[in-house]
Amino acid sequence: MVALVAVENLVKHFPVKRSLADVVAGRHPVVHAVDNVSFTLDENETVGLLGESGCGKTSTGRLLLKLDQPTSGRIEIAGKDLATLAGADLKAFRRTAQLVFQNPFDALNPRFNIRRVLAEPMINAGIDRREYADRINAELARVRMQGVGDLLDKFPHQLSGGQLQRIVLARALILGPKFIVADEPVSMLDVSVRAGVLNLMREIQETLGLTAIYISHDLALVRYVAARTFVMYLATVVEDGPTEQVISSPQHPYTKALLAAVPVPHVNQNREPLPIKGNMPNARNPPSGCRFHDRCPMAIARCAAEVPALREIEPGHRAACHLA
Amino acid sequence: MRDAVEPVQRQRTRFVAAIAPILAPLRDPFAATGVTIYIVFVLIAIFALSLVSHDPLEILFNDDGRLVAGEGPSRQHLLGTTTLGRDIFSQLVIGTRAALYVGLTAAVVVALIGTVVGLVSGYFGGWPDAVLMRLADVALGIPFLPFVILMAGFRGPRTSNIILGIALLLWPNTARVIRAQVLSVRERAFVEAARVTGASTWRILFVHVAPNILPLSFLYGSIAVGWAILTEASIAFLGFGPSNQVSWGSMLQDAYASQALSRGDYHWFVPPGLCIVLVVVAGFFVSRGYETILFPKLKD
User: How far apart (Å, rounded) are the C-alpha atoms in residues A46 and B156?
Assistant: First the structure.
C-alpha cells in the first residue's frame, strides 16, 4: 500500500485577542485546535474522524486542504509538501484534494445557476470550454441527477437539500480528485435522504478508488462509511483503529464514554449513568498530561503528569492511554 | 451552410445571455417604473434645446415694455414666470441636464470608489483595512457642505468641482456598508468552495463576493444621486455654483428667496421639487429591481 496522505506532528494554534493582563504578562494566548497529530492514509482508504464539537476535527480537515496554515508539523499529500505549495503546484493540488461541505444550502453561490456552479472548478483549472458540457453531464450522471429537467438553469435555492448535496458532490468530483474531505456531509440533511447520499458517496468512492476522510460527531455514520476511525478529544487523537474494533473493544476511556452515550431507541430503557462528568475543558488552557485526566473515571497520578503516547494495543489499533 | 450559420447564432445567444441580467429587472414593475422615469428625463435632457420656449436665463418683457414677472401658467409660459421675468418651464427643462449630470456622475464615482474600497478592506483585512478605514474616518469627519464650498472656492465654481467634492466625502458611507457585508459574505461556505476549487484571490473577490454585495452599491449609488442633486442646489443657493447655469436646485433656491412659497406660487417650486423626488425615487426603484436578480431568492 502506498501512503497518499502523511501527517506528522501537526499543530494548529489560533491566536486569541490579548487582554491587558496578557500584554502586561507578555503572554500570547492561543486556542489549541490541533496538537501533535500524526497519521498516514493509504490510497483508497476511508477513515472517519470522530469527535465532539470543538475537538479540532474540522480544523484538521481544513489543514489537509491547505485552507489554513499549520502552526507547525508537516502534511504531505500525493508526495507534495503542502507548506511549500504555491502557484501552479497549488493549482494542481486543488485538483487532487477536494472538500464536501457540511451545509449544502450555503456551499453554492446563490448568484450562480447549477451549470455555472459546476463549471467554476473547470474554469479555475483551465480546462477547455468545449469539455464543460460533457464533464458536467458525466458528473451529474454519477451523482444520479441527470434526470432532473432543466436542472442546469436552476439556482441553488430552487433545489432540495439532498439535491444540493449531490451537486456539491459533483462539484468536488468534477476535477477528478484523489482525496476527499467530507466535513459532516449529511448532518444538515433530512434523515430520510441521508442514507441515499451516504450510499452514493460510498459507491462513488469505491468506483473511483478515492481516499476519503469523513469528519463527523456521529458514530453510526462513521461506522457505516469508514473502515478505520480516529477519535479526537481536545485537539489530539486519542484512539485510532479499524472501526469495528474501536466500537467492539474501545481502548480509551473517552471512546468508551462516547459509545455509552449513543442513544438507544427505546423509551423505558434503563441506562447506566455516563462514566464521565463535566464538559470538555477550555482549549485555551488544556489540562496537563493526558488531556482527559480531569474527567476520566480511571485516572491515576501519572495521567496528570505525563502525556500518553499513541501506542499500538493490538495490530492496527492504537490508543493514547497509560492504562490501555 | 449549417457550419456557417452556427457561430453567428451562438454569438447571438451569447450576446442575449450577456445583456439578459441588465434587462431582467425590467420585469419587476417597480424597476420598470424607475427605468421609465430615467428614460423620460434622459430624453428631456438630450432634446432640451428643442423643448424650451425661451432662454432660461433671459429676462422677458411684454410688447409694451413691462417685465413679465410672477405670471401664472399660460399658453405662452407653460409654468408661468419668475419674479424676475424668466420662463419657468424652460428653466425646468434645462435644469434636467445639470441634475442628471451631477447626480449620475457623482453616483457612479461614489459607488465605484465605495465598492472597491469596501471589497478590498473587508476581504483582506489587516493593514489595507486599517489604512482605508482610517482614511474613511477622516473623510467622514470633514463637514460636508463647507468642504464642497472650499472645493468650489479654490478650484473655481464649476460643476466638476462640486462632483469631486461630493465624491471625496460620500464614498466612506458606501465603503463601510459594503465592507460590513463583505465581512459576512467572505465567511460563507461558497467562498471557501471557490478557494478549494482553485479560484485566485482576485477572482474570489470580484466573481464570487462582489455580485453578492452589488445591490448595496446600487442602493448607495441611488442615494448619492439624491445627495448630489441636493448638494448642488445648496451650493447654487450660497452663490458658489456656476452662475451661468440653471439647475432644479437653483430654481428652488430662487423661488425660496423670492418668497414664492408664502405667496403660493406652486407652479414655480412644485415642478423642480417634484422632478428631484422623481429622479431620486427612480433610483430606488431600479435598485429594488436589481436586488431580485442579484438575490434570485427574492423572486419566488
Answer: 73
Task: Note whether A108 contacts B188, CB cutoff 8 Å.
Answer: no
- Contact (Cβ atoms closer than 8 angstroms) between residue B215 and residue B290: yes
B interface test, pick of A109, A139, A187 with most B CB neighbours within 10 Å? A109
Distance to chain A for B183, nearest Cα, Å: 15
Nearest to A39 by CA among A17, A8, A60, A11: A8
Residues of chain B contacting A65 with CB distance shorter than 8 Å: 196
DSSP labels for A142-183?
A: HTT-TTSTTGGG--GGGS-HHHHHHHHHHHHHTT--SEEEEE
Tell me which residue in A67, A90, A109 faces B208 most closely, judged by beta carbons. A109
pLDDT tens profile A62-94: 999 999 899 999 999 988 899 888 888 898 999
Indicate if the pLDDT at residue B28 is higher than 90: no
Task: Note whether B197 contacts A120, CB cutoff 8 Å.
Answer: yes
Q: Domains in chain B, please, with CATH?
A: 24-62+73-299 (1.10.3720.10)
Q: Which of B187, B190, B201 to mutate to test the interface with A (most CBs of A within 10 A)?
A: B190
Q: Where are the alpha helices (DSSP H) in B125-265?
A: 126-141, 144-155, 159-185, 189-196, 201-203, 210-238, 248-257, 260-263
| Beta carbons of A67 and B199 less than 8 Å apart | no
Which of these, B94, B82, B57, B98, lies nearest to B269 by C-alpha position?
B82
What is the share, in percent, of chain A residues with pLDDT greater than 70? 99
Using an 8 Å CB-CB cutoff, list residues of chain B that contact chain A. Answer: 188-190, 192-200, 203, 208, 211-212, 294-297, 300
Pick from B189, B197, B199: which is nearest to A103 by CB? B189
Count CB neighbours of A153 within 10 A. Answer: 11
> 0.80 exceeded by the pTM?
no
pLDDT for B2: 44
Average pLDDT over residues A163-179: 93
